[in-house]
Amino acid sequence: MKRSVYILLSLLAILSLTLSACGQIQGLIPGGSVTVSIVYGSEKKEWLEPLVAQFNEARNKTADGKVIVVESTPMGSIESVRGILEGRLQPTVWSPASSVYIPVANAEWRKLHGSDLVTGNPNDLVLSPVVIAMWKPMAQALGWPEKAIGWADIAELATSEQGWSAYGHPEWGDFKFGHTHPAYSNSGIVSIIAEAYAATGKQRGLTEADLNDPKVREFMAAVEKSIIHYGTSTGFFAERMFERGPSYLSAAVLYENLIVAQETKRLSGQSSQIPVVAIYPKEGTFWTNNPYVVVNAPWVTEEQREAAGIFEAFLLDRPQQLKALEYGFRPADPSIPLTAPLDAEHGIDITQPKTILEIPNAAVIDKIQALWRETKKPVDLVVVMDISGSMRGDKITTARASLLEFVKKLDDRDRLQIILFSSNITTLTPLTPLGPKRQQVLDSVSGIFETGDTRLYDATLAAYQDLAANGDPNHIRAIVVLSDGADTASTQTLEEVMAQINASAGEGGNAIKIFTIAFGSDADESVLKQIAEPTGGKQYKSSPENIQKIYDEIATFF
User: Parallel, antiparallel, or unpaired for β 126-135 and 330-331?
Assistant: First the structure.
């Protein structure tokens, strides 16, 4: 073989391996490839991701011989549809947790394009009812399983001054409840729609006129009174509840499959928590039906529609549906029997739910969301911001701009305090209702500049002590700490700060939550994590490029 030919073949082999590693080898296959991008609710990630890999490895083809490549991205259901509506996301397929938000998505899409985003009746992939997860001893104290439990019981517990004492268990303290933020999460919006139905005594046909009844507002306010915080992720509530136990959360709105997953861990010795059970609200609930929507959008080609249909058929085929059982889902295929782990041993009842609520129209859903904003639990929030000299340049500019947007997301009833720290600690605004002072706060934040050293520990402890003394225990109480470096000037030590934080651990989910932001590569992530995690808060790693996204996520807890 001539040397030049050998060199050419060697180069081609190297090129082939490189392109394969980058996922670009499909471009060299006769007939080419077609990509199907799918944005899906993250609750089905463990089931879906291995199937995506299996499908891609099988090199399935369209009728024209093009290899189908599926690219998948897990994302909150409402977050994803907002991205589609705003044009930031252009997937071939959208698979939210449920069909509940489809009427709103279609209404918004019609305003923009004159047509529906979701057409026809999309197939369901896997099923899981929305339930109230509750620790078994607590459920039994309420009369479960002989007595049907529902939203009315939650409202009664939430407003009771006696808390669990009324049920013979003063050691359990107050009732602590959780559901995700309705503006960002499927389980959150399902929760407040179910609350509205329960307040009216209806199971279908909910109207805007129904929501004008004062008893709906009163009922929703009663349920929301026991909330410890909100959030974007149903999975986050599950993790927190199952990690921290009954002192953190008495109950939370989750999906049935998450209870199955937790009980599977407990029964196998991977979790030391007490048993948790699914409460199917007696007033009715919704399915998380995980619809498979090929979006009616101009960026989706006929070729992609064909490829998306082939992938859908693969997911609905019996072997893939059987795999759903392993992850606690009910298969969409009704011919598949519900066997272990879908059983009482894993905390669920396959004869439930008895009543499925009707999805309201878009106008009713919008009005329920507005009503929730008026009745939701307010937050007492202290923002602690590093303005030391190391924050100069892009850091202070983006930190200032993102804080402005964060303040705009808070409600008028929320109470806000802002503390700035460098060599000194300054209160920019005291802990008072935001509504009357909103513009003043925005103007003050706009004038923040950097100077001096870093008194991280002193500022954090001052904020914690202020909030403990002046915060309303009937509000969500939280602190957000942003720092770009290690402490250089405090009189307090980290151990002294942690001693006070840990002293309130007995409050469980009602304790002050601390969210910390490690801003830039010089931030002390380890210290910030130590400060945040014991409180039930969260530590974030950030940079000037993504600080706005971090603040946006933190805002969903309130």
Answer: antiparallel
